[in-house]
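fwd from M.: "can u put these together and see what the complex looks like"

so here's what she sent:
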Amino acid sequence: MTVLTSGCPATTDSHFFGWASNIYSRAYSVRIPEANEDLLLPTNYRRADYPLNRATIAAVLVGAVVVAIALQQSENAVKRPAVPNKVTVVYWEKWTGSEGEEMRKVVDAFNRTQNRIFVRYLSISGINDKTMLATAGGNPPDVAGLWAEQVTQFADANALTDLTEVAKQNGVAQSNYIASYWDMLTYKDRLWALPSTPASTALHVRRDLVPPEYRSPETFPRTIEGLDALVAKVSKKDASGKLQLAGFLPSEPGWWNWAWGYWFGGKLVDGNKLTINTPENLRAYEWVGSYAKRFGSQEVQNFQSGFGGFASPQDAFMSGKVSTVLQGVYKSNYIKIYKPELDWFATPFPHPANRPDLANRSVLGMDVLMIPHGAKHVPEAFEFIKYVQRQDVMEALCMAHGKNSPLAKVSDYFLAHHSNKFIKLFDQLARSPGAFAAPKIGMIAQITQEMGNVFQEINTGQKPAKAALQDAQVRLDSEWDTYQTQILGEK
Amino acid sequence: MKHRDARIGWLFASPWIIGFCLFLAYPLIASLYYSFTSYSVLKPAQLVGIANYQELVQDSVFLLALKNTIFYVLGAVPLGTVVAIALALLLNTKVRGMAFYRTLFFLPSLVPMVALGTLFLWVFNGDYGFINQGFAALHLSPPNWLGDPAWSKWTLILISTWGSGQSMVIYLAGLQDVPISLYEAAELDGAKLWAKTRFVTLPMISPVILFNGVMGMIGALQVFAVPYVMFPGGAPARSTYFFASYLYDNAFLFQRMGYASAMGWVMFLITLALTGLSLRISERHVHYEGS
């Protein structure tokens, strides 16, 4: 092969790096000097003439001091009270859009009542990571609006202020709340957070996409087997076998993939043990797999890839691609915006025919307010959180968000004027003994991710339910062991 | 005088030196230390010896993420190289408005990764996507780019070519450095277009190919943003769960900073080994002016 010659370094590595700098300089029109080229250095330059002596170190230190002063000044500027003579409580919240605006109204209303405290409300993306890192850095917000699922993880990480005593002193008690929601706020018999807005879930049904005999909550199937029969009846494929309408899809919206076992009487954590591959969970995930088999795994994937976002007119339920969907109380808010003419109703998610004791189950979620460990203004932060717990404030906020109330007492006005016409059902489901939430374990992030993977493996036909659950059990057992040893220091 | 010059020099360099020590050297050394600890950020780090590294070897998800990443590197780097060289060859011809075309092909590489991910969610959408609409128009059955584990990594490999503009510019600079006399000599020997490309152009730009290959490989090993936006949690069924995604989850989702640090160092060693291997292999196939 023809190769040109000129004076070049000898080794391949130096060839490569020489070429690299050369080619970069040409590509971007930047001239990079040769190694032996004199630019700023005098011709009689000798390394020994420029020692790294005390004076030089002093010069570097001066630079360091300047940088430190600049950092300190910027820190002071950040710490300056937003309103003179008032304690500034910094409140980070995850919400954006209309939900964020409604919370801002609550903050503004609180600020108007105060001559001592000013709450500075900041909408923050990636709030869980940022709160954790800010807490680790010793400069957390005074209030953080996170999710109830994170209470255990944050508490185990020593990232939260224990609210048990301050709540007692302020008259905030368990009896004020619906039992299931209060349970989500506590961990290891301590209180770590208080609610902002909660949610319960139910099956949403489009009347126009089910046969006439099923068009009311009273006549809609109460059992899983009944739902399956309905799905077989209403689902449609076109002449080419392409799915046009699905009566129900376990993968839509796909937010509670960890929870399927609970509808069949299973659970993921029992005491100190993980119970992933129990018969109840196996039954649940085999049922999930039956839908992939019924419609064809590939066909479900294709069909579902055309669904738009939950908060858009292309949402599968609103656009008429599924007849029924498991959704939260807030769904009605989006229906009102994007498809107000939609004729729908909500009903409890069905239970297995042989387990009538599992009627009226509902998966619960909750947005919560926490005070991170190391927050500068704990009493003032709690003052604000306590304000949010007032029945009138809480109900106004929950109504604006289209959610049910976490409080034990609910006003008639709330139930009568709520934008969701099935609010009573969602309220009852939250109070039902069958209501459940994500298991209270610090390793919840690993569990939900692993169960999401189990769901996908089954739904895409990668593994049968039994193998997927067994693999998840082995993996999570190992992680739980590590978690107990390394995070909890219990082994 | 010279000492005074030295002081001034160090003083001017001190912002960089301080920045380097604070934001690069310290984290680097600290991450090496943390890789031998159990560290959940808010609690003091506990030394665990090489337990994190031992766990990595037995961690099936780590091994899967590594496998996915290698698959992606093996797909994205050669494809990106071919696309970038092809574009550079086209843009090295003498036609009117070449500056415009060069700008046009470079522009996509400036699109931010998150915007790119969101855009391609629609391009590859199963029903409404631009690509599957094309398949439908031809009465062909399209793959499920986003939902099928067999296709999801290929989708990301195809998307990676969107950023070929950067390496294309470098190839273009290399092409312009090939002496015309070599082409003239080849023509006298009866070489046609393919022969000139095969025996003149490619050997002459082989150092550029090596450079872009190594840089592309390092970038591909760290792939994160686009899969993070397009395939949350490595869906479907962890088929798009890459090394950097698992590292991020361990550090920020599972609060296992020590384990994530060990992953980071394993990644560093893998990158170092692959780069060394590339340079070793290149000894036979890369030709430098003057060798």
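replying to her w this: Chain A touches chain B through 66 residues (CB under 8 Å).
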